[in-house]
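Entry for the shared binder. Reason: the reviewer on the internal report wants the predicted structure included alongside the sequence.
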Amino acid sequence: MPQDILFLDKDCTLGEFYQGGCGLYLGAFEFLEEQKDKGRKLIVATHAGEKGRVHLDGVKHLLSGYMGKEQLTSSNGFYIRPDKTVHKINDDFAKRSDLMNDDERKKAYAELSQFADAAQDYKKPQSERDAARKKQYEISDFLNVYLNRLTREPFNEGSRYVNPYSGRGNGAKDLVIARRLIDPINYADLRTVLVGDDSDREGTAPTDIETPLIQVTQSKFPKGWKPISATIDTLFSSEEKPSEVFDQLFRSGKRMKNGVRLVSIGKFKMDFERGTYGSRLAIWSQ
């Protein structure tokens, strides 16, 4: 049976940890304990790096994983290997120029500089300058090709990861990447929900519209954990995926302004919305 996974933003969701922050919000410990007791895997997905782990030392025994910027971001993007695992391009590939020895690199850049100078020498005929510029570009392209660090084979652009919803290759906190890291083969079958803050509405939820976002409202803690827990329970209550349960609730909800649907979950009223790229959003309404 597919695993129920609860992704958790850290800062301004579970607590405030910087510049004299309060630490974990009131009720956060009990909330996490309750979710773990219900058999869910709790995985932090955060913009913070590994140094942010220390903020969660008091609840680390409740967590199944921590994914920071080291796992979820890459300056040059990710690629998918034939075995379906996802990896950072820069971990396995580098520019040809970076893989050359010092003598090779010095010679190549000297030649590049020579043709660049010739292309800008207006004493030469236009045809010679054009030929020099063409050679300059050829050498530059040659040096900038990404090669496998071990095999020296060129990088296959067809293997580059592109988010299926945004069309971008490197979101700051891409939950499809997170799911692929958890289960490279069956990642699409994972049952996932995200608990996050306002910044996750546009920054994270659109990266994986199959993962509904339940948005916290810090001013409503500690009571605010109760509607969040109730919504999580409801989204995970069926054999269907949480995204499918969300859609059923959205369709049956009361129509409000700006496309919002008011949904009753137990004694709580939740605002359900469809956001960027069709992302699924829920927030406690009062």
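Summary line for the report: The radius of gyration is 25 Å.
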